[in-house]
Specification:
By secondary structure, the chain is of the alpha+beta class. Helix content is about 25%, strand content about 20%.
Length: about 120
């Protein structure tokens, strides 16, 4: 003889007279459609008793990974990402020696003025 859990054979733990209709496939729910900038529609389901403030205005679209909003005509815009800069690109943006010396001189002069005041 084997001993198991405390549930009666043939029953499901957690189910009861009010269990299944309050959650799962029989629960009352509402469908909310979200659209991304590519025109993909995503439908999410929320509890019918959920407070409207609990339903998000923007989600991440599983189709494109872009933000998706409830307004079909004005979906959230695609974020503009800056291209990756290589080390060489940063080296090319560096200041010239003259500019670097003048910046250093200005910084040292400010420090000397602060030290003289204190």
């Amino acid at each position: 003889m084997s001993s198991g859990g405390s549930a009666i054979r043939g029953t499901r733990v957690g189910s009861g007279p009010m269990g299944e209709q309050d959650r799962g496939i029989l629960a009352d729910r509402i469908a909310v459609s979200y659209w991304d900038a590519m025109g993909n529609e995503t439908v999410r389901y929320f509890s019918a008793q959920a407070d409207p403030s609990e339903i998000p205005d923007i989600i991440d679209s599983p189709h494109s990974g872009l933000p998706a909003g409830k307004d079909k005509d004005n979906p959230p815009e695609v974020a503009i990402n800056e291209p990756y800069k290589t080390h060489l690109a940063y080296v090319k943006e560096r200041r010239t020696e003259k500019e670097a010396v003048s910046i250093l001189d200005e910084a040292l002069e400010k420090l000397r003025q602060k030290k003289g005041r204190a």
